[in-house]
Structures are given as C-alpha cells and as structure tokens.
Amino acid sequence: IFVSGAEAFKIDTSKNATFAGAVGVTGNFGIGMLPNSGNSPLVINNSASDYLVGLYRGTVSEWWFKVYATGNFAIHENGVGDKFTIAAGGAATFAGALTGTSATFSSNVTLNSRLTFSYNGYYFEGGTTSIYLKNGAGNTILGMAAGSVVVPSALDIGGALTGTTATFTGS
Fold first, then answer.
1. How far apart are alpha carbons 94 and 102 in whole angstroms?
2. 68, 89 contact by CB (below 8 A)
3. Phi and psi dihedrals of 57, rounded to 5?
4. Residues with Cβ < 8 Å from 111, sequence gap 6 or more?
5. Is the dihedral of CA 127, 132, 133, 134 positive or negative?
6. Model confidence over 19-78: pLDDT tens digits?
7. How far is CA 62 from CA 27, 29, 75, 125, in A?
8. What is the pLDDT of residues 68-82, one digit of tens each?
9. pTM passes above 0.70
C-alpha cells in the first residue's frame, strides 16, 4: 500500500507485514494471537483501567501488570490480588513470603513481627521497649525489657564481670 507515492504497508510472500511508520491501536491489542481463537498470551489493554498488560494461558487470565492513578505499580495475580507493589517513590511491598539465599540492604530494615533463624527455630521478637531471643517453642532464652536483662535460667559468666552496678536475685 502506497501513500503519497511512498510505501506505507507491505505484506510479503511469507505473510510478514512491514509498516513504514507508527502503528496505532484504538482497542485492545494481542500478541501471539492464534488464528480465529480470540485469545492471546499477551494483551495490552488500551483503556482507563489499572490493568495495562495481561498474561494469559489459553483463554485464562493469569497475571496483570497494573499502574494505579496514585503512581503505584503492581504485579497482580488474577482473582487473588496484588502480589508485588512498588509505591510511587520506590518502596516495595511483597504480599507473601520472601524467600532467597541472601539479601543485602544498604539502610535500615524494619520488621513488623519477628526475625527467625532457620537453625532450630530460634528467633528475635521485639516490642517498643523490649527484645527477646526465643527458642522454637516460644520460651525466652535471653531478653532485655525496659532497661533490665531477662535471663530465665542459670547465668554462667565465663570471665570477669565489670561495670558500675549489678543486681542478682534468685539462684
């Protein structure tokens, strides 16, 4: 097809299409569409919806990339909810467990629950004025609360005890 004497669109003998300029789509656009199937593994949604790019398996909508009016970006599991969100400004939120072999953080890390070690289930649990090391059964091994050290069983000090004061009660 020629426009003003220049080739604008061409289909070759292998049925490959070539466009000389930009291609505009006013409706939804599918990539990898099977002939006469009406479905596509990748759908670009051209609407005012938050759902911008959809990933399909056959005719089943599986995942969506969403962009909210607030500027947040999310990876959304269809029928379940957002699984990963990056807020406008950069804070990332995972909806489920985050599993890996290592992590490096260049700033503070905030936990809203506990830090668990994979060895025998030991974990740290803290509040606004306390922190405790507990075993897998939830028993306190060592703690600090409101300025006091909590040792629920025998205290064995292998070296010199130094400081300005020490108060011991019990055995």
1. 16
2. no
3. -115, 105
4. none
5. negative
6. 888 777 666 666 655 544 556 677 777 667 888 888 888 778 899 999 999 999 999 999
7. 21, 17, 11, 37
8. 999 999 999 999 999
9. no
